[in-house]
Amino acid sequence: MTQSMLILVLTPLLITAIYTDLRWSRIPNWLTFPAMGMGFLVNAWIGGLDGALFSLAGLGVGMGLFVLPYGCRAIGAGDVKLMAAIGSIVGPSGAFSIAILSVLAGGLYALGALGYQWGLAATSRKLAFAAYGVFVTGGSTGVGDLQLPFKLRYGLAIAAGTLLFLLGLSPFGG
Predict the structure, then answer these.
(1) Which residue segment(s) compose the domain that 152 sits in?
(2) DSSP code, position 72
(3) What is the mean pLDDT of the chain?
């Protein structure tokens, strides 16, 4: 797909995912499954069998990279399905790049939320204490203190990673 076609297809998907994630803390199947199908059909229409395989590989990469965080309860199933849908549209290398950018955006988002919740000084102390516990003592001392009283909406991080990818800021140039 061309860059303008990607923007045209992904923008309504991401705006709707952000809205539903912020409003109801979920990214619904009625959004992700049709997006997966549309990604598959458009890529198959443009590229035939190669386009269909490209889409399926992207779906698998998008889903596969986010299954472990889902299994650890770090993200929700809707986040996994959103990444799978995006992967079906952008293909395997695009899904990989977007996943990396989303994780980076998610880390900044989490740090920002921690800083907002506790202030910069308290957040810095808690992070330093947690790092000391993990890297110096070999335990996880203090990591439990980093729990936020609210849940991060990871759809925002996925949307940010996708936007960075669309702006050409992929870590792999793709």
Answers:
(1) 3-166
(2) T
(3) 88
